[in-house]
């Protein structure tokens, strides 16, 4: 599913992987529009120049997305007024399709509320399909630290869900 | 807590992230299709250059045959075949039709092949300058 090395059609690969890649972009950006921009730039760069490189294509595309997101942050950091506008968007936007199961819906609503460092680990592990070693390389932390953040994130999600259940 | 982690992970995997909006796919298609067209064009240029080299080789062969017919039994023997180190010219970056950037590079070198018929004291030196142009894609940020 994630093999981008072969000469397959980009549209098929993007159809299979676009949603999870967009989520990875979304958790590093402040709005849906920014996530789309980052995904577009990162995917084009990956497909043109990087997909034939050796190594895990997941790690390559995640690196490309992270780099585009950081570039976008640098550009938009100067636009403080717009920052305030998109910050509101970040609070309310949905990252997932609506779920009929209340527990899943709570989970979907809770993930964006995690501290950024924990959320990154969860998103990269689940939707980036990266190991703790690979997450550590991406975030410049040790694999043990990545695993610890994962455990803290699970605890936090459990608390969020329990709180919502008892509301 | 640890016992619950695998189930929690499975629930996370069950969530469905929102797909990219349609205009994203359309924008990617524009960029990648233009890129593919540009690559195909570069391929045609290389094929055209190869064709020229083949034509030159044929003309050289005809020249040799004509020489042999006119001068009789000349027996050339290969003395040396050398390829000088290539000079590399890095040219200014250019913007391609698809909006991406590339740096043209020009390689120039000389191929020199020397034949001689020692008995007749004749020499044939084929001095052939060669040039190749290529584009190196540049990443822009």
For this entry, give a set of tags.
heterodimer, A: 167 residues, B: elongated
What does this protein look like?
The complex is a heterodimer of chains A (167) and B (141). The model of chain A has no long low-confidence stretch (mean pLDDT 84). By secondary structure, chain A is mostly helical. In chain A, helix 1 crosses helix 2 (32-50) and helix 2 (32-50) crosses helix 3 (57-76). Chain A has 8 helices and no strands. The longest helix of chain A is centred in the last third of the chain and has 23 residues, at 143-165. Chain B has 141 residues and is an alpha+beta fold. Helices cover 43% and strands 33% of the residues of chain B. In chain B, strands 1, 2, 3, 4 and 5 form a 5-stranded antiparallel β-sheet that branches. In chain B, a hairpin with a 5-residue loop joins strand 3 (94-95) and strand 4. The two termini of chain B are 44 Å apart. Chain A binds chain B through residues 10-11, 14, 18-23, 26, 32, 36, 39-40, 43-45, 47-49, 71, 94-97, 99, 103-104, 107-108, 111, 122, 126-127, 151, 154-155, 157-158, and chain B through 1-2, 4-5, 8-9, 11-21, 23-25, 27-29, 31-32, 35, 100, 137, 139, 141.
């Amino acid at each position: 599913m994630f093999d981008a090395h072969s000469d397959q059609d980009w549209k098929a690969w993007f159809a299979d992987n676009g949603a999870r890649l967009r989520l990875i972009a979304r958790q590093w950006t402040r709005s849906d529009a920014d996530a789309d921009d980052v995904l577009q730039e990162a995917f084009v760069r990956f497909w043109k120049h990087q997909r034939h490189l050796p190594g895990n294509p997941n790690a390559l595309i995640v690196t490309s997305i992270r780099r585009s997101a950081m570039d976008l942050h640098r550009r938009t950091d100067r636009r403080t007024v717009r920052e305030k506008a998109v910050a509101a968007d970040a609070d309310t936007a949905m990252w997932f399709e609506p779920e009929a199961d209340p527990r899943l819906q709570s989970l979907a609503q809770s993930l964006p509320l995690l501290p950024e460092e924990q959320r990154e680990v969860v998103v990269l592990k689940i939707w980036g399909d990266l190991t703790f070693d690979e997450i550590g390389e991406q975030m410049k932390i040790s694999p043990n630290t990545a695993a610890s953040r994962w455990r803290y994130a699970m605890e936090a999600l459990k608390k969020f869900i329990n709180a919502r259940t008892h509301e | 807590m640890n016992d619950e982690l695998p189930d929690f992970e499975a629930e996370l995997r069950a969530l469905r992230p929102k797909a990219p909006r349609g205009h994203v796919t359309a924008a990617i298609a524009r960029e990648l299709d233009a890129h593919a067209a540009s690559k195909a064009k570069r391929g045609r240029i290389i094929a055209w250059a190869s064709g020229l080299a083949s034509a030159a080789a044929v003309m050289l062969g005809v020249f040799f045959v004509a020489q042999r017919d006119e001068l009789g039994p000349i027996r050339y023997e290969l003395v040396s075949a050398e390829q000088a180190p290539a000079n590399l010219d890095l040219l200014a970056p250019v913007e391609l039709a698809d909006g991406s950037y590339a740096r043209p590079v020009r390689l120039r070198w000389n191929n020199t092949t020397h034949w001689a018929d020692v008995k007749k004291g004749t020499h044939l030196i084929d001095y052939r300058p060669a040039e190749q142009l290529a584009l190196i894609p540049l990443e822009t940020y």
